[in-house]
Amino acid sequence: MLRDLQLRNFRCFESFAAEFAPGFNFIVGPNGRGKTTILEAACVLLRLQSQRAPNLTPTVRAGRRSFVLSGHVEGHLLQFYYSALRRKLAFDGVEQREPSEYLRLARVVSFANHDLDLVRGPAEMRRRYLDFIGLQVDARYRPALRAYERALRSRNALLKSDAPRPRELEAYTEPLTRAGTILREMRAALVRQLLPNAEASQRAISGHGETLLLEYAPGNEEDFAAHLRRTRADEERLRLTTVGPHRDDLRLQVEGMSAAQFASEGEQRTIALALKLAQARIFAEEAGAGPLLLIDDIFGELDPARRNALLAHLPNDSQKLVTATALDWRTGKWEEALLKL
Ligand SMILES: Nc1ncnc2c1ncn2[C@@H]1O[C@H](COP(=O)(O)OP(=O)(O)O)[C@@H](O)[C@H]1O
Ligand SMILES: [Mg+2]
After folding, report:
1. What is the pTM of this model?
2. All domains of the chain, ordered by start, with CATH?
3. What residue's CA is closest to ligand 1, atom 17?
4. Cα(307) to centroid of ligand 1, in Å?
5. Is the pLDDT of residue 335 over 70?
6. 8 A C-beta contact, residue 126 and residue 249
7. Which atom of ligand 1 lies at the shortest distance from residue 34's CA?
8. pLDDT in tens, 40-77
């Protein structure tokens, strides 16, 4: 559980502090007050990455160079300092060179309106979903992903140059295939683990026994090195690496039909929600303790009955930070803490 959180120079806040209860914490206020920012600060403190921005540059308060976040999680003090030039992590007051110990402490699931992009958006959205989970459950995920991204960047830069030498290309192909093969195995395992959880979540929230099928669609063939050799002509023509995990996708089907093409908007929202609930269930399985759920203003599109049903379906053993512009629609009795902005 996240007991408290302090922000300095993080987005709209020069200085801000809050305390949280186990169970439901509602954060209420008009648009632009910093509700999403508080959830983001919790996510960045716990996972060193934002649930809404691909990197941390935009989270530094305008006109400042760095931010500091701190808070107590499971009785431990986490501190994170960030500037464009350096990052510092401390666990119980001891500076950490490696993030692994720090990151072992807590897991986060974020629910937001842009989750609909998981179903409708490009494959990149679904890769980021898988990565966000993988980075939290498997210590080998981060090094493999970073190594793959690095090798891909270098290899593509070389392909862009005039007449790249085969020897040079080979020097990047080797780390690319090594990291890519590990990444593919981990993503495949992740999808296998997600499948029954997503199916169960979808059945529970759709209310009419629909089956949701997830299928991993790798961006390269089993023998990655051989596949790269066969696509050399394409690489030369397009000047980039055309196959590999950076082309992976996660196929979503409901009742045998593509969710992106055939599901209604309401159904697509249900599918996105099922994917996030599946993520929460995996974390509960893996870590034994429920993840922190960040639930950001997702009620706008739902009628009051569905809003209350959604809250009722959230895992009991998880702490929840829930933002909303108003709370007058709630019917259930929630044990709660209320933060007004
Ligand atoms: N880096 C930044 N520096 C200063 N202000 C920022 C920065 N990033 C975002 N903001 C501002 O923070 C405010 C709060 O944003 P947000 O947390 O999304 O509000 P809410 O979720 O309550 O609608 C917005 O007015 C936005 O313009
Ligand atoms: Mg918001």
Report:
1. 0.90
2. 1-106+291-341 (3.40.50.300)
3. 34
4. 25
5. no
6. yes
7. 17
8. 999 999 999 999 988 999 999 999 999 999 999 999 99
